[in-house]
From TrEMBL:
One of its GO terms (molecular function) is methyltransferase activity. Residues 166-375 form the O-methyltransferase C-terminal domain. This is S-adenosyl-L-methionine-dependent methyltransferase. InterPro entries: COMT-like, COMT_C, COMT_dimerisation, SAM-dependent_MTases_sf, WH-like_DNA-bd_sf, WH_DNA-bd_sf. Signal peptide: none annotated. GO terms for biological process: methylation. Keywords: Methyltransferase, S-adenosyl-L-methionine, Transferase. It comes from Aspergillus keveii. PROSITE patterns: SAM_OMT_II. The keyword Transmembrane does not apply.
Length: 396
């Protein structure tokens, strides 16, 4: 905390600098946010920072309850009082007041008068199906990270590295891998698939930010005899739909775009995402890739679910299907910077540790992993928040 004259002058100078800050692009906006955060850190009493850290555990369960009561959704229609919310939800009015007070303090709701609440922009995002589903997923999986201290103590603080024998299995008392464990829970699978349709980049969609149409079309003659894009473990197909939107209709004809995932995902593709031009393949990515010679094989938010030994098998299966000089692999995942990783990335990294004994990888870890699978990186653009496209081809 800045206390002496020189330190306080430094803080005041940083505040003055903000007034000339550029907020026209996602990059510059992020830089301004980072400056604001650093100003807040300079002004905060460290005892209060410690108190906030100690009490941070209460946030998630409270938000999950508000989600169960559809509070965010109800507020998207207009402001409501605690009494109105209690009537609509049949929950206790005083309980509503306490939870809404908390949500207001966290900036997720706005109090516009005593016991009167209005949606904030964040409430609208929380009310939408991907976040609402994600909050329900979190209710069932929260106990994984609760078990982290006991698990690491028992395992002598070794870095978890197995999807089959780690914190997840310890927390749930199972020997099943996490996707497998939940596969029979239909509500969870549906919620998980809906959660995965969430947009994870700031501003434009990833397809725009990485200019993917030119990455597919430029520099080659497209071979219409083989599929154009195969989305491996593509969930319910939201990304393939985005890819299709960026390409001319003449080349995304029937059979050119292939969605692969386990049967439980393919069977759960909702009607609004179903595309009669897509090929839907129920495929286990740990078995040989059935589509040979496609222009693009993409794995988005998939390899971060798997420790290196499993991720390598997935990559080897893809590499075996690729055509040298034509096929490209796209990995969409975090690329952890050497310093100053964003909160979102570090949270995902620890979540992957807990759920799958897996990790978010840095540039060096991606390079080593791809190298082991006989692939080499040809481009690696990274968005300001650390979200990256790792574009690779066969190393031969
Ligand atoms: C984190 S989700 C990512 C989904 C999608 N690519 C996206 O970006 O939203 C991981 C996906 O891996 C799929 N998956 C898990 N194990 C798999 C396997 N053995 N073979 C194929 N897909 C698998 C899951 O069904 C799920 O759709």
């Amino acid at each position: 905390m800045a206390t002496n004259g020189t330190e306080l002058d430094g803080v005041m100078a940083a505040i003055a600098e903000l007034s000339t800050g550029d907020i026209s692009s996602p990059t510059s906006r992020l830089q301004v946010i980072q400056k604001c955060q650093s100003i807040i850190e300079s002004l905060q009493d460290p005892r209060m920072v410690a108190m906030e850290t100690l009490t941070s555990v209460v946030m998630y369960p409270c938000i999950a309850v508000l989600n169960r009561l559809d509070i965010f959704k109800r507020l998207t229609i207009g402001p409501l009082t605690a009494t109105e919310l209690a009537q609509q939800t049949e929950a206790d009015r005083w309980l509503i007041v306490r939870l809404m007070r908390a949500a207001t303090a966290w900036g997720l709701i706005k109090e516009i008068g005593p016991e009167t609440y209005q949606a904030t922009p964040a409430s609208f995002v929380l009310a939408a199906p991907p976040c609402a589903a994600g909050l329900r997923v979190g209710e069932k999986t929260h106990k994984i990270l609760d078990a982290l201290p006991a698990y690491l103590k028992e395992t002598n603080y070794q870095n978890p590295g197995s999807a089959h024998n780690g914190l997840f299995q310890y927390a749930f008392g199972t020997d099943k891998e996490s996707f497998d464990f939940f596969s029979s829970d239909k509500e969870h699978v549906q919620d998980f698939n809906t959660f995965m349709t969430i947009q994870r980049t700031q501003g434009q969609q990833w397809t725009e930010q990485f200019n993917i149409a030119s990455r597919i079309l430029d520099g080659v003659t497209i071979d219409p005899a083989v599929p154009l894009v195969v989305d491996i473990a593509g969930g319910v197909g939201q990304d393939l739909t985005l890819v299709k939107k960026t390409l001319p209709a003449t080349i995304t004809t029937t059979g050119q775009l292939v969605l692969e995932d386990l049967p439980r995902a393919i069977d759960g593709v909702p009607a609004d995402l179903h595309d009669p031009d897509f090929t839907y393949l129920r495929h286990d990515m740990f078995t040989p890739q059935p589509v040979n010679g496609a222009r693009i094989y993409m794995v988005k938010h998939v390899l971060h679910n798997w420790p290196d030994n499993d991720a390598l098998k997935v990559l080897q299966n893809i590499a075996a299907a690729m055509t040298p000089g034509y096929s490209k692999l796209w990995i969409l995942d975090s690329v952890v910077p050497d310093t100053g990783a964003e909160k979102k990335i570090v949270a995902l990294d620890i979540a992957m540790l807990g759920f799958h004994g897996a990790l978010e990888r840095n540039r060096e870890q991606w390079t080593t992993l791809l190298d082991a699978a006989g692939l080499r990186i040809i481009d690696l653009p990274v968005l300001p928040d650390g979200y990256g496209l790792i574009e690779a081809e066969l190393a031969v």
